[in-house]
Design a protein that fits this description.
2 copies of one chain form a homodimer. Chain A is mainly beta and 441 residues long. Chain A is built from 6 helices and 27 strands. In chain A, strands 8-7-16-11-12 form a 5-stranded mixed β-sheet. In chain A, strands 9, 10, 13, 14 and 15 form a 5-stranded antiparallel β-sheet that branches. Chain A has a 5-stranded antiparallel β-sheet with strand order 22-21-25-26-27, with no helix packed on it. The interface between A and B is large, with 156 and 156 residues.
């Protein structure tokens, strides 16, 4: 499971009794899944012993070169280690890799990340026509339409309002869409599912600003428009605007970055990514939705029989195992941690189950606290790989009781013309050499 | 409160009834503090109206230059806006600003941040002799001493163990130490209190690794040593190691950065920052503490009468208002949000109170959810500034019932020779021009 190849450089040694405790692990499902109590403080204590390559009886304590060399530089704004240079976002498809004019995107390396927070430098991004270079002092947010008082806010004016923070995921409606294709695309966690990220966002509750402008009772929708060259615009139900929508100014503590909407974006937790309109410049209150390009020809679900599911905003529950995943080979039989992310636009993750035998048997994974509404939730499952073929799957249930569907069930419901909102179970096949591949199972 | 100066560039306009709702705000303490219910969804709705410079009746919706110019570039690893170039960490004192050899540090710009998460590029850093450039494949963590099986772990071996994530603050024991000086230092939030940050850390529970090595019942302490050229080493009680200590590998989702301990650091939540030993290379279990330099001549509290409080590990509860704070001028009378951070090494923040009249009267602030144990907690307080002099203070109470002391009370207890663990109340004076300064009150 190393991303640097074989790290087992220590000479083979007698590991003595290190292995002996492994009999304590309780097998809870097929293929070697172990009880999640190994993650609990007391349980883990008695049940450790992940004897693995790279663990060795300590003989000496060498002093490496870097301990003898007192040099180094601080920086006003830091960067990752040079040894992590391969942990990068990757462009979508064949687009000119980094030029963002026209529709494009860049996927988060979810296979290399841990926990629930996506660092800002690795948050996924989608643009529809470039990244505008906005002067924050000149930018204005205008609220108008069916209001008592059309208002224009500078960034400084917004900054005096009561703020609120929340950890929430943003996911592109097209994320995971390749799973509707007839045969399994040979992708990995990043290329198949990397259009989702999670951050702590801080800004002004939209309900507060709408109260400031005075909402005409006839207003049932609002149009949110971006200041980018494609003028991305989406119709948002007024009920969502009054519920948990936010004009976000900060992402993980610092100002939102240009490609994520600097200096401000709309945040509609749990809704399609593009509805979290970046570079937000106007909110126009209306009686009806506006039928913009981005809610007609894009981001609507084309069903069988010529039907279209339009205005399906909420992203249903999804989960994916990110370690192991394609490109990250197993390093010999033994104990591993299966690690993955789960989320739901409907609220909190209630539970995640994992299967190592292609869905024949399931066992419940441990969830990392805090489990937050509409946020990525990290799940973990101990697994003793016997060195034989296995098919790994995860299945989330959210607090509404919704259960992540199989691929067959999702396609039976929607057909294969639509690739939006694809949230079916992903299967990773492990072969006897320890390679991992995307399969349909 | 603008950090870009006067942003009120719109022509003065009739704001109509925008001001009229402000009478709904309930004053709850002296100097114009308002009830925190303004932050609640329903309450905020009825009680908005922060009429302020920069808010104007919207007349036109101009199309700015950046909307006409479809260009921009993605990057594999992103960066903040060029307009945020002044949001930087700042060096301590007169040290060669960025060269890290010898003891040095760099402070987080806490005045410019929001929420609870510190982005990795702005996390504070302290080094004792440079930042080692560690090859993660060659690095080993050795656990030895009073154990049944001395063991050596590669990074890859550690990565197979069950992991755990938690959001926790790290704070230098010397943070805020200037407040013991006889006269108030003319600093700001960053220079006085910027040696604290908060991140989501992920790694392997130390209890699991100690179980793997087998703890000799005689072991009551362990020595944690860094691989940096100063070999920072600290004695940790075995009880803490078995409780919530972690070998952290990830910070806010990505690998820990070099200056924060790449590829691994010890995390002892709520304890002095230096005990979260970076670049961790050995844990040696012992019967007694080792009396290293960093627990004798450094990081012990020199009290009056020649006494020393050694092995005081836990950081007591502290809070500080970061907005407004020195360097961030007020922009005319009216409604503002007071925003700050609070934390405690003992557990969760129970409440934060704010005073606008130098401690004569107090009112309870709103806390941003989730309130997590040993994590930064964001507090917010609505305030109507009348344009006259005011003294802003905050006071945290943690879940143990401990209340942040006044400066006089802290000095009465410890004297003024010691500057470690300084957690007294900070006072910011606002004058009639809207300037903010550090004072003793």
């Amino acid at each position: 499971m190393s991303k640097r190849g074989d790290l087992d450089k220590l000479p083979a040694q007698d590991l003595g009794s290190v292995n002996t405790m492994s009999g304590d692990h309780e097998v809870v499902a097929g293929g070697g899944l172990l009880h999640r109590r190994i993650f609990l403080q007391g349980g883990g204590l008695a049940a450790a012993a992940f004897a693995a390559p790279g663990i060795a009886r300590a003989e000496t304590l060498d002093v490496p070169a870097w301990t003898k060399n007192p040099e180094g530089y601080f920086s006003g704004y830091g960067a990752p280690s040079r040894f992590e240079a391969d942990v990068q976002r990757g462009p979508i498809g064949d687009q000119n890799p980094l030029y963002a004019s026209g529709p494009g995107g860049i996927r988060a390396p979810i296979h290399a990340l841990e926990g629930m927070i996506t660092p800002n430098g690795l948050h996924f991004e989608i643009t529809h026509n470039g990244i505008p270079d906005i002067d924050p002092d000149a930018h204005r947010l205008v609220i108008h339409g069916l209001v008592e008082r059309p208002l224009s806010f500078s960034l400084d004016a917004l900054s005096r309002y009561p703020m609120t923070s929340r950890v929430t995921f943003v996911e592109c409606a097209g994320n995971s869409g390749a799973l509707v294709r007839p045969t399994a695309v040979p992708g990995n966690a990043q290329t198949l599912h990397g259009l989702v990220s999670c951050a702590e966002w801080t800004g002004v509750s939209l309900a507060v600003l709408l109260a400031e402008a005075g909402v005409d009772p006839k207003a049932k929708w609002l149009l949110a428009e971006a200041a980018d060259p494609s003028s991305v615009s989406r119709s948002i139900p007024i009920a969502k605007a009054m519920d948990d929508a936010m004009i976000a100014l900060y992402q993980n503590g610092e100002r939102i970055r240009p490609s994520n909407g600097y200096p401000m974006r709309l945040l509609v937790p749990g809704y399609q990514g593009n509805m979290n309109v970046k570079w937000l410049r106007q909110l126009k209150l209306t009686e009806a939705p506006m039928q913009t390009r981005y809610e007609t020809s894009r981001y609507s679900l084309l069903l069988d029989g010529g039907r279209v599911a339009q205005y399906k905003f909420q992203l249903d529950a999804k989960s994916v195992i990110v370690r192991p995943s394609p490109g990250m080979g197993m390093n010999g039989p033994g104990l591993y941690e299966i690690s993955g992310i789960a989320w739901s636009g409907a609220g909190k993750v209630r539970k995640v189950e994992v299967s190592a035998d292609g869905g024949q048997s399931w066992a419940e994974a441990a969830l990392s606290e805090p489990v937050l509404s509409k946020a990525l939730t990290r799940f973990r499952m101990p697994w003793r790989w016997d060195g034989g073929p296995a098919v790994l799957q995860s299945r989330v249930t959210d607090e509404s009781g919704y259960v992540q569907p199989t691929r067959d069930a999702l396609i039976a419901e929607r057909g294969q013309k639509n690739f939006y909102h694809c949230n079916c179970i992903t299967s990773w096949a492990v072969d006897a050499e320890g390679s991992v591949a995307h399969v349909y199972a």
